[in-house]
Specification:
The structure is a homodimer. The first copy, chain A, is α+β, with helices and mostly antiparallel strands. Chain A is built from 20 helices and 18 strands. In chain A, the strands form 4 sheets. An 8-stranded mixed β-sheet of chain A has the order 1-5-6-13-12-11-7-10. The first copy, chain A, has a 5-stranded mixed β-sheet with strand order 15-14-16-17-18, sandwiched between helices. Chain A has a 3-stranded antiparallel β-sheet with strand order 2-4-3. In chain A, a hairpin with a 5-residue loop joins strand 8 and strand 9. In chain A, helix 1 runs antiparallel to helix 5. The first copy, chain A, is elongated, with a radius of gyration of 29 Å. Chain A starts with 17 loop residues before the first helix and ends with a helix. At the A-B interface, helix 1, strand 1, strand 2, strand 3 and helix 4 of A face helix 1, strand 1, strand 2, strand 3 and helix 4 of B. Strand 3 of chain A pairs antiparallel with strand 3 of chain B.
Chain lengths: ~475, ~475
């Protein structure tokens, strides 16, 4: 079996090489640390689930299309999970003595056999957090606050968490005289407001129109009296959260169930004010509807103002049908899902991540085989001082190729030590980045040899302290 | 679709509930931190691979049996990875410009459709580390040293890393006058030494025997002159590493290729001595053969002396056929694999892990709805001081049930605050564990009410500092 298999992966799948993995790991660790501070606990579930668990008993072949089915020796009907909500629901239904509230996070890959495209993969990482068994709007509040803390910790620049409430949209139906069963269609159209503008939303709610590519967009056939009321609602979008609440209260005055929904939204807004999450980070935006049918209360999403092209990187809301499929029982819950890969792409784009290629901070260059014991001793001395260090063990003999290797992996410091250094009781430390900058500035090889750019010689006994100092200097200059 | 699907998972699969996940995560983070200090870099690959990548072009249906096959829309021949070595090989073959040495770790689940049993799962986590493109025995040395550092960091108690070398076993064949092609069979028998004893090994090497259940164990038919020499080799097992090396050198004096192998083993041993890894942690044990056929040089494994029943928790060695399947080229490499689940089971057994059930250190009890703003403020005050805190948001009203909830999740401190406390500007902090101990010691309810075991009242302004102090006290008393 020599050389006959082509090394490749199937469409929509990919490897994460070390620079990408380091960035993603940092990202996941950061999100984890925020929600662990909030007291969320981790859960893990198998990648493989029964198909009826994944799809519900009445699901058709249509829903199955995006599931990777799996074959086990017992020939059971199995598939790879396509989200983390279904496994959560199964766990809540299966372990009846799990105390509630159950506030868990899970960070795991999910699989969808959809058509792959740029930035669309068939295996991708999801980070979900949910509070199961809670009615209080404080649970929604803490998911929004956690979103803010997470995005701040990831240093994504400016961001905005927008929230609204399905409950308020349901009141809008009452106010507009629109039957509840038409809600799903209406919300789907409202969700397009940001993208297509008010005029087209109006047309789609009423008569429909033909879009620029000539495709007919059918209308919902609402009356203009109904659409006028929706428009009045959509106009309450500017101003701070207090103002939006006040206008909502005015508009919905006397409408059945309105006060309950408006005041719950107001409470969330007030909790957030009290905790210091102001208008610059959290807005009450009535155009947020979130497509999924199952939301029942507050809904929220986050966008990066410095990278809006990535869309919503974080979103969720309140729902109560979690375990319906298994237990036929409604359980109040609220949660959010972080698009790890989308956020990851945004962080790379913003150069907040992806700069680090290796874990090692020092490469000990192996220049002279007779000094190997010294190299080993220095390597472990640095490691034991907590400084990630690699001893070059490859095939290259000269220091030139080994320095190139340090460059390849982005290792910031190289340690050079030959018999000359040994005699004099010193080590040479080379700042790779500084060396590169100076080398470009220098005129010729003679000058280079004289200056030895970025290099410094220190007593052997000062190895660890000097490396520490050099690394401290670099932290300020580099991204992760 | 109400209540019709049973919440369950297929055979050999399992969920990791929060207490288990916290322990496993701590374990994985600890191993990661050791090898990142050594400069290993992370890699991630898709769970789904082409079947020919997984099995090689000539593999038969037999090998396929333990693979979960996967169906994608394009109907390609795909399966879930069964180890992390094959994906590493594919990556090395696929990304030709990846600089070498390539020293990567990967921690990911793998799937095997074998017969499940107690402690044997069909989906399990593996932690692999490999140095690809290195000939130097220092690479083997650092994998052994890292094993020691990892097991020390995990506080597993006493452990022993045993190492030997396939090269030395090959010399044994020359010394014993045994053809090289019989090596595989001979090593397989030697691997049983620990389990069945010298007498049965001797019989299996020669005439064979009938075991206690009446099954015939066929013999390899070696001559007694050959077996005598193997026995002489196996007797070199006591004593320290220096002594074993000296005896080996004596025994193999003049045998072709012996000096090269013995001195490489000696160098590893000497590096380890120099770095402080003495006989108490690393032994040169010639009975270590490691079953897999592909090892070519040093081989190693680790056992926990306080939990020997778990067998080898960590093992690996040097090999050179990594990318043979893809490129038809030999590449020197050495690596090891950690049985995360086995090590995890051992840590639970040793009570070094699994004690922690929640991330939260404080539960803010919600006693009086009119004080909710205070509860929210105190919760975030603690969180912002870096203390993981949960505000109780469930359905229970009275403090009794909420304290029981803290108990369920093992949250060590409960914060109690009612209008009485508010008036006096204090908060009550309850040490849950101390409370339980004292409550058991107290005679009756009256006494309990008087003493309020484990509770202390402190000024509101001292909330954070007091919680910090209480947590510091607890660290010494509890396992993770």
């Amino acid at each position: 079996m020599t050389g006959t298999v082509e090394a490749r992966v199937s469409r929509g799948l990919r490897d994460l090489l070390p620079d990408q993995m380091l960035a993603r790991q940092w990202m996941i660790d950061t999100i984890r640390s925020v929600y662990e501070l909030y007291g969320f606990v981790p859960l893990d579930t198998p990648a493989i689930e029964y198909l009826d668990v994944l799809l519900g008993s009445e699901a058709g072949a249509e829903a199955q299309q995006s599931i990777f089915t799996v074959q086990n020796p017992e020939k059971e009907a199995l598939g790879l999970r396509f989200d983390l909500s279904v496994p959560l629901a199964r766990v809540v239904a299966q372990y009846r003595d799990l105390p509630r509230p159950f506030r868990r996070y899970q960070v795991s890959p999910v699989w969808r056999a959809d058509k792959p495209g740029p930035g669309r993969f068939r295996e991708f990482m999801q980070f979900d957090l949910d509070s199961v068994g809670v009615e209080s709007e404080v649970a929604d509040t803490e998911i929004i606050a956690g979103m803010c803390d997470t995005l701040s910790a990831l240093q994504v620049g400016s961001y905005l968490v927008r929230f609204s409430s399905r409950g308020i949209l349901n009141v809008l139906l009452v106010y507009g005289g629109i039957p509840a069963e038409r809600g799903k269609d209406v919300f789907r159209v409202l969700d397009k407001l940001e993208k297509v503008g008010l005029e087209k939303v109006r047309l789609e709610l009423t008569t429909g129109y033909v879009d620029s590519s000539g495709d007919p967009i059918p209308g919902l056939g609402l009356e203009s009296r109904q659409v006028d009321r929706i428009e009045r609602f959509l106009q309450i979008r500017s101003g701070d959260r207090r103002e939006v609440v006040a206008q909502l209260r005015d508009l919905f005055a006397g409408v059945d169930g309105a006060e309950r929904e408006v005041s719950m939204t107001e409470r969330i807004s007030n909790h957030l004010y009290a905790l210091g999450y102001g208008e610059d980070r959290v807005s009450l935006d009535l155009s947020v509807a979130r497509g999924l049918a199952y939301y029942t209360g507050p809904v929220f999403e986050a966008i990066l103002l410095d990278a809006p092209q990535f869309g919503s990187v974080f979103g969720g809301g309140r729902y109560d049908d979690l375990v319906l499929r298994f237990l036929g029982e409604k359980v109040p819950a609220t949660g959010a899902s972080i698009g790890v890969d989308r956020l990851f792409a945004a962080l790379i784009d913003l150069k907040r991540a992806g700069q680090q290629k290796s874990t090692a901070k020092v490469l000990v260059v192996s220049m002279d085989p007779s000094l190997q014991d010294d190299y080993i001793a220095m390597t472990w001395e640095l490691r034991r001082a907590g400084i990630p260090t690699e001893l070059y063990l490859g095939a290259a003999r000269g220091p030139g190729k080994q320095l190139k290797y340090a460059d390849h992996w982005g290792i910031p410091i190289a340690l050079l030590y030959g018999s000359n250094e040994k005699e004099r009781g010193v080590v040479t430390l080379k700042d790779m980045e500084l060396g590169r900058q100076r080398a470009q500035a220098l005129e010729d090889r003679r000058e280079w040899l004289e200056e030895r750019p970025g290099q410094r010689e220190v007593p052997r006994s000062e190895l660890v302290s000097t490396v520490r100092e050099m690394l401290l200097h670099q932290v300020g200059e580099q991204g992760r």
